[in-house]
Amino acid sequence: MNELYKFPSGFASEQFVKYIDREEIVEITKNLAEAINKRYQGEDLILVGVLKGSMLFLSDLAKNLRNINVYIDFVQLNSIGRDKENAGTILIKKDIKSNISGKNVLIVEEIIDTGRALHFLKERLLLSNPRSLEVITLFDKPYQRVVPVKAEYIGKKIEDQFVVGYGLDLDSYGRNISDLYYLKYPN
Ligand code: IMP
Ligand code: MG
Predict the structure, then answer these.
(1) Residue 149 confidence class, pLDDT cut points 50, 70, 90
(2) Contact 112 CB / ligand 1 (< 6 Å)
(3) Is residue 44 part of a domain?
(4) Atom nearest to 168 CA in ligand 1
(5) In the predicted structure, residue 126 carries a pLDDT above the cut 60
């Protein structure tokens, strides 16, 4: 990994191991876009991106959508008081800005881990009575799921590792990196 990047304190470049390269992410995203194109052909669709992690994926996905009237909105969630024993509280830091009532809505996530954030968001959006509500995620880590929530469209199931790059961060670091790395913790 490029030494010019400023790593969060306590982390070294050797700890970032290349996991999925950009070409594969492009391929995965194109295949996902094809499925969305088939499902929503000729219809309106509101993409709801979950900030900040989904920004690169949403951008690349949206560019590959055809024959769909695409609208884009964002939410930002926050989780406070979360630790090993406590699930903490999920907060809506930024809500949607559009009227989704009677509309097709697709939540765009970059990764699902415990499923808590996605479950919370689905419940919130359902309260606004969308016509349909589906979820697309680039990566899925199904091992630590505590809420039985599933995405209709999954790019790739990955190992139970902490990953960084392509929108995903470690202490705000690494969102702009085009490839995906996993973090090797020191013994
Ligand atoms: P969940 O509520 O545990 O499913 O995950 C909520 C959020 O945690 C995801 O949308 C990501 O923003 C973040 N997250 C989960 N796994 C990772 C990871 O491996 N790297 C970076 N962020 C992650
Ligand atoms: Mg996210």
Answers:
(1) very high
(2) yes
(3) yes
(4) 21
(5) yes
Residues 6 or more apart whose Cβ sits within 8 Å of residue 80: 88, 89, 91
Is 113 assigned a catalytic role?
Answer: yes
**Residue 151 Cβ contacting ligand 1 at under 6 Å:** no
Residue 187 lies in a domain: no
The domain that holds 70 is classified in CATH as: 3.40.50.2020
pLDDT tens figures, 153-181: 999 999 999 999 999 999 999 999 999 99
- E strand or H helix at 23, and its extent? helix 22-39
Q: Residue 186: its pLDDT value, please?
A: 66
Residues in Cβ contact with 54 at an 8 Å cutoff, skipping those fewer than 6 apart: 108, 109, 110, 138, 167
Provide the domain limits for residue 128. 22-161
Q: Is residue 176 part of a domain?
A: no
Residue among 44, 73, 113, 169 flagged as catalytic: 113
Looking at the 3D structure of the chain, how many domains does it have?
Answer: 1
Confidence band (pLDDT; 50, 70, 90) for 10? confident
The whole-number average pLDDT for the span 67-95 is: 93
CA distance 134 to 152: 6
Looking at ligand 1, which residue's alpha carbon is closest to its atom 13? 111
